[in-house]
């Protein structure tokens, strides 16, 4: 099969797979998986030394990827872009961890927390410890309960969820418009793009995330009416945030498939200039993301069976199905990323940019998604491989999305920060 599958040709001076294809891709995938499993066991696995699953592990995981977008996609690896490898990758990884800590504990907890308690776990813990928060019925919300519910940590993760789309979509769909074209150099260009995308992120966050926390603090915990409650209840049939998770995650997947195995298609074919091309592409991805989520919501009960039927309340069943739609989307992440970056978009057709190549990789990604899903749930990898608890109700509590995002971190860090070292080398004349 390898003889009939072609990879993209590489010009002189370009990075080429050190051991050819598909060997380089296979070695890379094995290496990234081993790294992910070892670090997962250390930091997340309940059987490991830290056991931080799912929180605060997922909060740091999410922020690491967002900060990585700042470093690589927006700042162009400035100011470390000229360092030799592997020094550049090591330095950028260390910087990523420092900025991640700063974003969570200073920007969100201390700065934004000056105005918004629901974004600061420190503030919420202090309020609970002082006994100022009461649950319905007059029962005090204790510090232990507040730490267990990790409300602010969840709110920070929600910001990053929105940011996974709202930061990179300016680069991928709008070609960095309105920052580019311009003669701005780094770090001015990157900082301007981060600022512009942050405005868009807070815009989406205010509409899609804040109403859920209005429900939590205004209905579940009291009678506050400063924040609105979910406006989508009548649309989705339930008020939980998982409605947003379901289709927004599919939007993220479609956006990054555009930049990876789709090689810009289908939006590159639009005969429009910016920002019209970006706006049309954005609207189409919103619609496609919602359609994919709906397909998952309606098809999943076919194979889930009793996992769904044992849920008594219809609203709770819908909540689970929409979150599971997001989980299904997560199983596409490694397939399309590794296929593009480390298997060089291999395809049986001569022209990798053709529509035939587009559909081959699209169908292939969905097949690999299904295989990964089966291994996680039906082979039980989530239980024996990752130590995820609540496996008696594995579909409802497994949180495979956390693992799938953690699995891509070694891949992304190697591609972004290490420039594919040591799996690729520069082609010489």
Provide an overview of this structure:
- There is one protein chain.
- With 429 residues, the chain is mainly α.
- It has a domain at 55-218.
- The protein has helices spanning 23-43, 57-74, 87-111, 121-129, 143-149, 151-166, 168-172, 188-208, 210-220, 233-236, 242-259, 276-304, 306-309, 314-330, 333-342, 355-377, 381-384, 394-397, 400-416, and strands spanning 15-17, 424-426.
- A two-stranded antiparallel ribbon has the order 1-2.
- Helix 1 crosses helix 19 (400-416) and helix 2 (57-74) packs parallel to helix 6 (151-166).
- The protein is globular, with a radius of gyration of 22 Å.
Tell me briefly what this model is.
This protein has 429 residues and is an all-alpha fold. The chain is built from 19 helices and 2 strands. The chain has a two-stranded antiparallel sheet.
Task: Give the SSE map.
Elements: E1 15-17, H1 23-43, H2 57-74, H3 87-111, H4 121-129, H5 143-149, H6 151-166, H7 168-172, H8 188-208, H9 210-220, H10 233-236, H11 242-259, H12 276-304, H13 306-309, H14 314-330, H15 333-342, H16 355-377, H17 381-384, H18 394-397, H19 400-416, E2 424-426
Helix pairs in contact: 1-15, 1-19, 2-3, 2-6, 2-19, 6-8, 6-11, 11-12, 11-14, 12-14, 14-19, 15-16, 15-19
